[in-house]
Amino acid sequence: MANRMRATRRGFLGTSAAGAAAVTTSGFVPYIPAAATAFANEAANDRPRIGCIGTGSMGLGDAIQHAQFGDILAVCDVDKDRAERAKYDVRIGKGKADAYGDYRKVLERKDIDVVSIVTTDHWHVKIAIEALQAGKHVFCQKPLSLTLEENQLAWAAAEKFPKLQFFIGTQQRAQKDQFCRAVNIVHKGLLGDIQRVTAGINGGPTGGPFPIENPPGRLDWEMWLGQAPKVPFRNRRCHYEFRWWYEYSGGKFTDWGAHHVDIAQWALKEDTKGKGPIEINGVDARHPVPYKDGYPTVDDEYNTAYDFSVPCKFPSGVELIVTSRGDNGILFEGTKGRLFVNRSKITGTPIEEGWDKEKFGDDDLKTLYKGKPFEGHKQNFYRCIREGGLPVSDVYSHIIAMNTCHLAAIAARLGRTIKWDPAAEKIVGDDQAAAFASRTPRAGYEIPRV
């Protein structure tokens, strides 16, 4: 490490600014040489300065991990109690970090190099794009986006600022003995031709009606809502429960789907530009409230799908079934065998008989890691900030997987089959379904178009 060329933080900030001004339109993401970025962890002056936006339960966990690689100078949450909890946590702010209620205060600081975005889903893309515009490296929790259009806006921003890392919190890509092993087996052709993949993502909850209440005094409900329609405060719309309302998230389709659909399409090599399903069947889906024209008819109960099985057909003929039924995990079925994998196990004859013996080593992991050594999730993020190159959980592959997740949700909401043109990134032959590709944000909360 001592012999590696190192740049000063001042030099890093200069190259970040240059990266923020760079534009690429080809869709090709260049490799960034080591000298173009800076900071290693061996010297205090080289440690990145970090701002954490969103400090709920997941945000706290991420912040604790970020603090292993840099110094947290700012924490932010629209709930002041949460922001102050992070400020005074000895593992995060240590009583020294500044606490804010408005994320823009973090982005305007010139002394912050990296932002961690762990807000509600419907805020992710707006904050991420503005962070890139401010010259910050971005760690954003999954799912990145709320709509198909947001995927396109995030892709354009990532291309415009190629020297800034844009990393997604799909940590399953860093589970060597489960998901990396499964993906390697599929890539090596050991299962033969893949015919079907089943992504079990569990069902969502039902609940309500929930009463209108006064927002807690230290929660900025207006800011929490952001681009979403303005509605009265109901406690079960907020914080963790936001996942079960299409106004803020996509239910299980974008919650667990962001993990398992990502792994499935990584294994199928259906995670690059122009890839994705062409037909998504949402007939077999149930919601906890009545729907009309794809919208819930009541506003005081959870409204995301709780029971579903949505087949997604790819041009190759492979079918990816996104389902709430059965075990949580991914089942790959090929002409030579099948295997099942989740966060705690990997099973099947290929595993029991060791079909990948001598075919799953450091070089194979390095291939999966786009030329980097296998290591923990956030280690990979900070390595890529330091050395350049794409991280294992890059924004581009995530967006392709999120297209599938959003399409599954749209098909389920409408209760029919929809068709998708992966190359054009458009829903075709169905104007009503195509209208769900975007949402008009409330005035004052528009997402930048770069």
Structural commentary:
This protein is of the alpha/beta class and 450 residues long. It folds into 2 domains: 9-169, Rossmann fold (3-Layer(aba) Sandwich), CATH 3.40.50; 173-376 and 397-437, Dihydrodipicolinate Reductase, domain 2. 30% of the residues lie in helices and 16% in strands. Strands 7, 8, 9, 12, 13, 14, 15, 16, 17 and 18 form a 10-stranded mixed beta sheet that branches. Strands 3-2-1-4-5-6 form a 6-stranded parallel beta sheet, sandwiched between helices. β10 and β11 (295-296) form a beta hairpin. α6 packs antiparallel against α13, α7 packs parallel to α9 (257-268) and α9 crosses α13 (395-414). The relative contact order is 0.15.
CATH topology of the largest domain: Dihydrodipicolinate Reductase, domain 2
Radius of gyration: 22 Å
CATH class of the largest domain: Alpha Beta
Query: What is the tally of helical segments?
Result: 14
Say how many strands there are: 18
Structural class: alpha/beta
- How many domains? 2
| Uncertain stretches of 5 or more adjacent residues | 1-42
